[in-house]
Structures are given as C-alpha cells and as structure tokens.
Amino acid sequence: MISADFAPNEQLSDAWLSLKLLLQPWLWKKGMETDAVKKKVLEKFFHVSRSTFYVSLFLSARAGLFTILKGLNLPKDSEIIVQAFTCEAVILPILENGFKPVYVDIEPNTLSMDPIDFQKKITGKTTVVILQHTFGIPPIYRTKLYEISKKHNLVLIEDIAHGYSIENNKKLDIKDEKYIFLLSFGRSKALSSVFGGGVVTNDVRVQKALEKSQIALEPPTFTFILRLLLYKPISVFIKSTYDLYIGKLVHAITNLFKLLIPEITQREKEGLYDPLFDKAYPNALAMLLLPQLDKYEQMYKARALTCSLYHKHLSNYSFLNFQPHEGLLRFPIQVNNPESLRKKAARHNIYLGSWYNQVVAPKSIDLSKMQYHKGSCPQAEKVCKKILNLTTNISYHEALKVISVIK
After folding, report:
1. Tell me, which fold does domain 293-406 have in CATH?
2. Bond from prior residue into 139 cis (ω within 30 degrees of 0)
3. Under a CB-based contact definition with an 8 Å cutoff, are residues 288 and 15 in contact?
4. CB under 8 Å to 351, separation ≥6 — which residues?
5. Where are the alpha helices (DSSP H) in 60-112?
6. N or C: which end of the chain has fewer CB within 10 A?
C-alpha cells in the first residue's frame, strides 16, 4: 500500500516504540520529553537557542493558531488574510475567534500567496496575514510579502505545517524580525506524532499569551492517548499486509469500531471549530516525535530523491517551480480527470492525495460557511479542479511504481 494520507511517515521502529509506550501509562501525560522536543525543534529547524525563541506545544496545530489569534487581542472586526487553496484547520480558528477570513489568490507555479492580490485585499481592518508554505515549498515571494506586511503593520504568521525546508530555514535572518511559525506534527505531515502542533516565536506579546494558555490547558484523557498510541502499530500492520488483503480487512474493522481518532472530526467537516483538540501536548506524543526529529534529515533526503524522480519522469504533469533537491511533503501534479486517475491508481493499491480539491478543503465543507465567495480567487479554483498529489516518503522502487501507474 502506497498512500499520501495514511501513515506516510510511519516505520516499524515507530510502531514498536508506540507498542512499548502502551505498557507505560505513567509516562503518557507528563515528562521530560516535551522539553526535549522544544529544544530539538529550535536546534534542528531554526538554529537558535531557547534564550531568544519560545516554543509552545499543543495537541493540534489548529489549537495553536486559535491561541495565537486569541492572544493578540485584535479588534472584533479584524480581517485575517489567508490564501485560497488551504484547509479547514486554518480557517476554523479564525471564525471561532469571531474574525473574518479574507482570501488571497495563489501564484499557480508555487501554490503560494500572490503578492499583487495580497496588496489589493488589505483594508483598514486587516490585522494578520497567514503565510502558507504549501507542500513545504517556501513562498517564492516571501521577502515581498514580508515587506508589504511590515509596511501595513500586520502580524505575519508563517504556516509551515506542511514541512520544513532545510535550505530555506538557513536564510531566515531571524535576528532582525519578529517571527511566528506554526508547526504541525499530525499523522500526514512531515513529522508525525499522530497529533500535535507547535508555535515558535520571538514575539514577546505572543509568547506571553502562549505561556498563559499553557497553564490552563489540560492533557487529553488516558483513553484518548491510548487511541493515539494505537495508530502507529495498526497503520504499519495495515500498510505492510494490505497487498495480501489482511491489511484491508484490519483497516475495515478499525474503521467499523472507530478505534482511531479521525484526523478531521465530523464537527469540523460541518464547518465548526472542534474544541476536542484544545489540549496540552501529552508526553507520550513527545516520545513518539523525538525519533522522527532525529531522522528528519534522512526522511527529507528520501523525499528529495523521490521528488527528483517525479520531476524527471512526470514532466508532462508537473507544473511547480521549485528546486528538485527540496524534499516536499507531497508532489502535486495536474491532470484533466483526477478522479479517473485516482480510481486507476487505487486498483494498484496506490492512494493519491487530494490536497486541495477545493479552495478550502475538504470538499465536504460548505464554502459559504468558510466565508469564501466563488470567483474571488480564480487561479486557486482552477488548480483545485486538476490537482492530485503523490506521496514522497517512499522507496526508489515504490516511486517507480507510482510513476508507471501515472504514465
């Protein structure tokens, strides 16, 4: 089984660690590993110490974004600029805080915010802009977007939930600016502790709000953590036996009895913020994350190799302007009939991703509830109709199999 959505990061070592943790419930809620994660995140991705930057961890990245927006004490009629071609996890925290999302069109060859449309959408009520690194691709006009934000005195939040570009983060010039980074450790992201998110900032105002929120947050229940710990061993077993049909049966049973916590809840699919994930980051998930942090560079290089193969052999479907050495979370392609190709690939047990087949995904969400007006971001709408994405954290031979099916 090759899947962009289902456990793209998990390996046998991750499953074994999770199984051992199931027998150590006294480590689940609190421990030293959460501090170790904070330290390692700063060292690996931002090359700074905790003396200048603050790290706050949450059960989900959307809880982190909700807390940032709440802590900024913005005017009630604030407008928050986001790009179209995004997901509900970005929009729902905005709506839950009572603010208005304002959608900016994308630059189609990098899937990041178009600075010309960004400038047009700024009003006297604009207070925040969320800059998304789609699929882990650094926005091509990042410097320009920062300049515009600074000119209008806007708070800029960099959403790097899709991944962390090793090359880009060496060029952040973090000593000269105030930064707010939003990270995700969800099961389908570049680093997986099944659930989890973080905020990294050197903005004192945001830091104080985060510190205050951490005091109030409680960890999830033991039952909730148990279900999270089951994800890695179950998913690894399913993927390794899927072609033998045993995995398909286990997958069906798992779904039938709802053994695992869904990545998107039913409430979120209905367009409502779910406070289920407004919890502290439990120590058990930190213990799952630390090994992934240690092998991140290895996974990044594996993704980069796969991206290079896709770039070389699928040039007729590729449309991105990015450096082939970058290890993207997913490799997007454009085809005229994405659903037809998705069904064809599924017959070979290859499951293609759909980020994003709607300007605010998933497709089940009512766009009017997201306050998106059809036609306001034509480039994003155009890309959504043809987009498919390929998993990148796979072996060389698996990548060749994906290429063969696509071609």
Report:
1. Aspartate Aminotransferase, domain 1 (3.90.1150)
2. no
3. no
4. 1, 2, 3, 4, 5, 6, 342, 345
5. 61-71, 88-96
6. C
pTM for this predicted structure: 0.95
At 23 the pLDDT is: 97
324 vs 168, 228, 306, 355, 385, CA distance in Å? 14, 34, 9, 20, 25
Hey, what CATH topology would domain 28-216 get?
Aspartate Aminotransferase; domain 2 (3.40.640)
CA 52, distance to chain mean position in Å, is 25
Give the domain ranges of the chain. 28-216, 293-406
DSSP state of 135: G
**pLDDT tens-place string over residues 133-160:** 999 988 889 999 999 999 999 999 999 9
Tell me whether the CATH fold assigned to 28-216 matches the one assigned to 293-406: no
Worst-scoring range by mean pLDDT, 45-54, 193-202, 334-343, 360-369? 45-54
In angstroms, rounded to a whole number, what is the distance separating the alpha carbons of residues 239 and 6?
8
